[in-house]
Each structure stands twice: as structure tokens, then as C-alpha cells.
Amino acid sequence: MDINNILAFVAVATLLVVSPGPNGLLITKTVPVSGTKAGFANIWGFVAAFYVHGTLSIFGISMLLVQSAHAFFIFKMLGAVYLIWIGLKALISAFKDNNSTIPESSLKTKKSVSMRTAFAEGFLTNVLNPKVSMFYLAAFPQFISINESAVNAYTLVTAHSVMNFIWFSTMVVMLSRIKTIANNATFKKWINSITGIVFIGFGSKLALMKND
Predict the structure, then answer these.
(1) What sign does the CA torsion over 71, 64, 17, 27 have?
(2) Cβ distance 81 to 125 under 8 Å?
(3) If you write DSSP's letter for every residue of the chain in order, what string do you get?
(4) How confident is the prediction along the chain (212 residues), in pLDDT tens digits per residue?
(5) Structure pTM?
(6) Which residues, in sequence order, are CB contacts of 139 under 8 Å at separation 6+?
(7) What does R_g of the chain's alpha carbons equal in angstroms?
(8) How far apart are CA 129 and CA 119, in angstroms?
């Protein structure tokens, strides 16, 4: 694969990664409340989902999303319902805690419980997002030929994953510096309220998206 094609793909993937979306919101919601490790668990969930979408695109399976209106609708609605569900959970959490501070022991318990959940949320937020699959379907033909091996295609998936890991790891580190104020229930309520509303908005927008 030509190095220029790889660099061009990296540029496109970077724009996708840094643009506002559910991934950044999930990190913003997770790190202040559940800690740095949970934030990185989110990121590994993102990466795992990229390889799923990449594999489906490489072997042509996800073409069903473009060619079949029914398959696209089902997949789209699953993603929309999941995003809205995360948003509702965040809103419920925002108004559930009434104490001004949360005990440190409680925070530690949440961290240990949330690790697996954080990975699953990161994974499902991306694997159920047809926009990610369609990105691979649209991008791969532009940067690789049909005669190239799957190894070259996975090079692009890896490049996308690396850019994603760098960007969101930076975000995790930055957010971890304010974790001392996460013990404040007002801050937690504010974070959960904002992310809950925006996640519901993303889910609603996804539900209304058409398969052009």
C-alpha cells in the first residue's frame, strides 16, 4: 500500500475522530465519575468495535446495510435505542444522587464495577453505529484496491484505531486532572444531565437518518 494513501486515510480518520460525537461524550461522562481506568476501558471498546466494522467491510458483509433497507433500518434503530438508553441512564443518575459529596469507598466500588461496563459501553456505542460502518465502506474503496490483501486493509483500521487512542487518551488524562471535584454531587449532576440530553439527541438523530 502506498504511504501517501495511508497518510491521506489518517488525515480523514483524524477528522472523524476529533469531530464531536458520542465517543467524546461517553469519555466525558465516564472519567470524572468512574476514573481513568474506566476511561481507557471506553477507548479499548472503541478500538474493538473498529476492528469489527473493519472486518465486516473487508469481507463485504456490511454491504447489506447499504443494499438492504430493512437491514439498515434494524441496525440503525438498535444503535439509536442504545444511545437513547445511555442518555436516559445518565439523566436518571443525575437526579438520583442527592448528597453533596460521595464517600471515597463508594467511588472505589463504582470504579471496580464500571470497568467491564465501560468497555461494553464503548464497544456498543460504536459497533451499533451504522455511521462507523458506512465510513469504512466509503473509505476503503478510496484508499485500497480490490486486489490488495486484507493485511493492507487492516493497516487502515489500525491507523484509525491509533489516532482514536491518541486523541481520547489525551482527553482521559485531561479529565482525570479534575477528578477531585467529581466527588461533588452538583458537578456529577451537571455532567450527567448534559451528556444524557446530548446522547438522547444523538440517538434521535440516528433514528431519523436515512440510507442515502
Answers:
(1) positive
(2) no
(3) --HHHHHHHHHHHHHHHHS-SHHHHHHHHHHHHH-HHHHHHHHHHHHHHHHHHHHHHHTTGGGHHHH-HHHHHHHHHHHHHHHHHHHHHHHHHHTT---SB--HHHHHHHHHHHHHHHHHHHHHHHHT-HHHHHHHHHHHHHHS-TTS-HHHHHHHHHHHHHHHHHHHHHHHHHHHTTGGGGGBHHHHHHHHHHHHHHHHHHHHHHHH----
(4) 567 777 888 887 887 787 778 888 888 888 877 888 999 999 999 999 999 988 887 776 656 655 666 666 776 677 677 667 767 777 777 677 554 444 544 444 444 446 889 999 999 988 887 778 777 776 666 676 555 566 777 888 898 899 999 999 999 998 887 765 555 566 667 766 776 777 677 667 767 766 55
(5) 0.69
(6) 9, 12, 13, 156
(7) 18
(8) 16
Amino acid, res. 126? N
Q: For residue 95, how many other CB atoms are within 10 A of its CB?
A: 11
Side-chain half-sphere of 91: how many Cα atoms within 13 Å? 12
- Cα distance between residue 39 and residue 24, in whole Å: 10
Give φ, ψ of 101 to 5 degrees. -135, 155
Grid cell digits, residue 195:
451528556
